[in-house]
Design goal:
This protein is α/β, with parallel strands linked by helices. The protein has one domain (2-214, 242-266). Helices cover 43% and strands 16% of the residues. The strands form two sheets. Strands 3-2-1-6-7 form a five-stranded mixed beta sheet, with helices on both faces. A two-stranded antiparallel sheet has the order 4-5. A hairpin with a 5-residue loop joins strand 4 and strand 5. Helix 7 (151-162) crosses helix 11 (242-266). The longest helix has 25 residues, at 242-266. The model is unreliable at 225-239 (pLDDT under 50).
């Protein structure tokens, strides 16, 4: 039943519904946030202890997830040993590869403001991430060591705020199910994967139920009753080298910087598509 509750957009209508929320906050063309969550592996076999112990002080299993603006889980890749970092995991994520290669995401067009304030078009969807990911045009992150008052600094502040959705999603599912908060009490990785997938499916199921009952979810400020219910590397084509992808990354990120600056300057928070 995983594909019934956890799935990427399958048609243009679903893709537009996901990207519309990001367009409103100054990130046109974005279709989700990506990050890796580490879950404690309480009963890790002794032979896997060193491979499973990464940045945490305990052995863990990592799951790379893509979530949308409304904290819905769109994809799950894993489990991975806790010693693997985000740059290594993203290379084997078939869902990130899908965004780069599948026609629905690769040929999708979106509008943006250029440096002169004119509306232009760009092709290809992307995800927002932290600075632990590779410099790919499909994974856009914030700038480092930049002035907050500059356009780059304003863009970084905005993207860091928006991508908290994926962090909030991880916090919700961990507090909602104790087994994810306290750790897996199983030695078999396949069993641990089934538990994590089941929790994500139930999380999305509850979001669907909230939508049907018109429950309002607060963003950025507390509400009286928000209804949250909380008590391996692929072969690449010769022309697609790391340098080529890095150049595309820089071009797309600066494109989004100028768009957000012009959007704020013009006072138009509805986006150029409206």
């Amino acid at each position: 039943m995983k594909d019934e509750y956890v799935s990427m957009p399958t048609n243009l209508g679903e893709l537009n519904r996901v990207s519309k929320c990001y367009d409103i906050v100054g990130l046109p063309g974005c279709m989700g946030s990506i990050d890796v969550v580490h879950v404690k592996w309480a009963h890790c076999p002794a032979g896997d202890f060193n491979r499973a112990k990464g940045k945490e002080t305990f052995p863990s299993l990592g799951f790379e997830c893509i979530t949308d603006f409304n904290r819905r889980v769109l994809s799950i890749n894993g489990p991975h040993f806790g010693s693997r970092n985000d740059m290594d995991i993203v290379k084997t994520d078939e869902y990130v590869e899908m965004i780069r290669s599948k026609r629905l995401f690769r040929d999708a067009q979106w509008k943006y403001y250029n440096q002169d304030g004119h509306v232009r078009r760009e092709t290809g969807m992307y995800l927002i991430s932290d600075n632990g990911y590779l410099r790919w045009p499909t994974t856009i992150c914030s700038f480092t060591r930049t002035s907050v008052s500059s356009p780059e600094g304003y863009f970084s502040t905005n993207i860091e705020s928006v991508r908290k959705d994926v962090e909030c999603t991880f916090g919700i599912i961990k507090k909602r199910w104790r087994i994810l908060n306290n750790g897996f009490y199983y030695r078999d990785m396949v069993q641990c994967e089934k538990i994590f997938v089941t929790c994500c499916c139930l999380h999305n199921f509850m979001l669907d139920l909230m939508e049907m009952t018109s429950v309002t979810v607060g963003r950025g400020a507390p509400m009286g009753d928000d209804g949250i219910w909380l008590s391996g590397p692929r072969d690449v084509e010769p022309e697609e080298t790391d340098r080529f992808l890095s150049m595309q990354f820089d071009e797309r990120r600066m494109l989004l910087v100028h768009h957000l600056y012009q959007k704020r300057k013009l006072g138009d928070m509805s986006g150029p598509n409206e």
